[in-house]
Write a structure and sequence with these properties.
The chain is of the alpha/beta class. The protein folds into 2 domains: 120 residues, Peroxisomal Thiolase, Chain A, domain 1 (3-Layer(aba) Sandwich), CATH 3.40.47; 217 residues, Thiolase/Chalcone synthase (Peroxisomal Thiolase, Chain A, domain 1), CATH 3.40.47.10. It is built from 13 helices and 11 strands. The strands form 2 sheets. It has a 9-stranded mixed sheet with strand order 3-2-4-7-1-8-11-10-9. Helix 7 packs across helix 10. The protein is globular and about 55 Å long.
Length: 384
């Protein structure tokens, strides 16, 4: 008996909040209920549950205890998955394997986070990730708290090694905002032009505030199944891939770049497709520099340098490869790898409204973790 095809048939999401409020547990329950309703099934139909949470040990971090708290019964598969920003695609991979191998038939994948807490901002929450010894201790002593300063160093290095004009960062941010203006779920929808970007405060050169993602309190859940009788709109998981460069960041070796393209190559090979088959690309973009870097490393711009590709509006509406069409994490919302996956589902379902890419049937979803330490890729295709 051949292994069943695996389809994504349900999507549920909470409102994306910029204010303290519900716990990750409550947010996960809300998104899960919505995803199951979207798929037309109940909790009793789910025999697999995968949960993901933001890195760092926090008292309210979502874990496998959600199975009981969320009202699920006997499960054949229950795991907590955590590979930083690559977690969402890793959950999709795990669910697909479980369904194709007969370990489960219908799997719910959910991610929830609530970094915005009373009395502090999201930046302080993320700044406490990582340890205090060795290299990380040196970084802290030098004021490199959190991801912004370290990604600023990465940006300086990439712009230098590729010869890219820093104006490309502005092109990424302005294009993302243009997409977000058509996304009712985006938290930054005000018009943005070049002058507005240039007026944004510099946080860590060359990254301005508008080069950085906007964290939210929220949750997203998706349903995957091998059952042909579940779901109205089916998005086929055509291929997945991962690559972990295992960077050591020591003298004599490049600290940031190289690695990741194999994840995309593997996903496309499984799908029996090439880059020319892609209608949209939804890439993990915690900072504007990451959009440029991934377009380059994943070889998504052909022979055109990534900076020129974005500057020439090729990632915008009507471009050669519409990218981060909901505003991404810069202007949409930052919910780790669920942000790009959510937008891929919206586009392939033809539910994008003002931002809909015409005739979009194949999407590449990309996820990265750490400082480009983990890469994951997913190819989705609308089949019905």
């Amino acid at each position: 008996m051949s292994a069943p095809e695996v389809d994504l048939v349900g999507l549920g999401m909470t409102a994306m909040s910029l204010r303290p409020g519900a716990t990750p547990l409550r947010l996960a329950a809300e998104a899960s209920t919505a995803a199951l309703a979207d798929a037309g099934i109940g909790r009793a139909d789910v025999d697999g549950l995968l949960v993901g949470s933001s890195q760092g040990v926090r008292p309210d971090r979502l874990g496998v205890g959600f199975a009981a708290a969320g009202g699920f019964g006997a499960l054949r598969l229950l795991e907590h998955v955590e590979i930083k920003g690559a977690t969402t695609i890793a959950m999709i991979q795990r669910a697909r394997h479980a369904i194709r191998s007969g370990e489960a038939s219908t799997v719910l994948c959910v991610f929830a986070d609530a970094p915005l807490a009373a009395g502090k901002g999201a930046g302080s929450t993320y700044a406490h990730s990582g340890g205090n010894t060795g290299v990380r201790g040196l970084e802290r002593a030098s004021g490199l708290l959190g991801s912004v300063p370290t990604y600023a160093l990465l940006a300086q290095r990439w712009l230098h090694t590729t010869g890219t004009d820093p104006v490309a960062l502005r092109s990424v941010a302005v294009t993302a905002r243009g997409w977000a203006m058509g996304n009712p779920d985006a938290v930054n929808r005000e018009p943005l032009d070049d002058a507005g970007y240039d007026a944004s405060p510099m946080i860590a050169e060359p990254l301005r505030r508008l080069d950085c993602a906007r964290p939210v309190n929220g949750a997203v859940a998706v349903v995957l199944t091998g059952r042909p009788d579940v779901g109205a709109t089916r998005l086929r998981v055509r291929g997945t891939g991962r690559e972990h460069p295992v960077r050591r960041r020591r003298a004599g070796a490049e600290s940031w770049f190289g690695g990741g393209c194999r994840a995309v190559d593997d996903a496309l090979e499984q799908a029996g497709m090439s880059r020319s088959d892609l209608d949209v690309a939804e890439l993990y973009d915690p900072f504007s520099i990451v959009t440029l870097l991934l377009l380059d490393e994943y070889r998504l711009t052909g022979t055109v340098p990534a900076g020129d590709f974005v500057h020439d509006a090729q990632t915008g509406p009507g471009g050669a490869l519409p990218t981060n069409t909901g505003g991404g994490q810069l202007s949409g919302f930052y919910l780790q790898g669920m942000t790009p996956l959510t937008e891929a589902v919206v586009q392939l379902r033809g539910a994008g409204g003002e931002r809909q890419v015409p005739d979009a049937t194949v999407a590449l979803v990309g996820g990265i973790g750490g400082r480009l330490d983990h890469h994951a890729a997913l190819v989705l295709e609308r089949t019905g």
